[in-house]
Amino acid sequence: MNQTSPNLRNNVFGWLIILCLSLVGCKEDMKDLYQRAVKAYQTEDYQQAADLFEIILQKYPDQNLSLKARFELGNIYFYKLKQPENALKHLQELYAKSEPGTYALESLKLIGYIYDKSLNDCLKGVEAYRLILEQYASAVDAAEYRYNIGECYFKQHDYQQAMREFQALVDAFPDNSRAPMAGFQIANSYALLEQWEEAISRYQELLLLDTLTPQLRAEIMLELAFCYERVELFDLALKLYQELRQMDPAVAMLDTAVIDRKIERAKEALKDSQKAPAAVDWKKRLK
């Protein structure tokens, strides 16, 4: 039976010791770098913190701690160093490398927010929001992301798609605090499409809700009054404007100067609409 020579056994044992020591040294070095990065962050030396986290990624890309380092980099670059593109690079890499869970979810949240609110590219933000709804709907306020999607299409003047998204929110979460605002945006979309009758109907339905905030109620009344003007219901428009003018400014913020101008405009329009047609002198006209 062949036996391993003492020299070979000693060499193997020696290499195992070196490997173990190197792994211990690797973990210690990585841990030290991470602690230094955290300390730099705590002392508000954000660039130094970012540099140290970057070193961790370069030296230990496959270690679990590198995921946390990448997440910290996404936050530092966006919130502290005001570098949204660098933040996106790390967050997108984090999402790609993470198993489903906290890191993947948190990276998607910030990716959507950066595109939507910082880079004004809400359609790319919508991609992240939809992934959140597909993969983590039970772990988030799904109505918030549905509303963000609707708002994106509204800002893009794609009112038909905006209405579909807002209606999906209202149907799925009728009792959510965002449902009235989604309904308001549906009515606004009809108004912007100059579908006045449908807009009026929607605004009137919203005013029947007892869950409206005073501010939202005032804004609905203001838009409804404008729609009344567009269909020449000047008496109804005037009544709403006058009600708005009597509102307590501490309850609903309104520009009273604007309301006053609208009242005068509605009064003039109502007066003109009530004038009898001028009599025609047919004999003179036939000459």
TrEMBL record:
Short name of any one Pfam family annotated for the protein: TPR_16
Record-linked PROSITE patterns: TPR
Swiss-Prot/TrEMBL TPR repeat ranges: 143-176, 218-251
Gene3D superfamilies found in the cross-reference section: Tetratricopeptide repeat domain
Entry keyword Repeat: yes
Top-level taxon of origin: Bacteria
InterPro entries found in the cross-reference section: CellSynth/LPSAsmb/PSIAsmb, TPR-like_helical_dom_sf, TPR_2, TPR_rpt
UniProt name for this protein: TPR repeat protein
Organism annotation: Candidatus Moduliflexus flocculans
Organism lineage: Bacteria, Candidatus Moduliflexota, Candidatus Moduliflexia, Candidatus Moduliflexales, Candidatus Moduliflexaceae
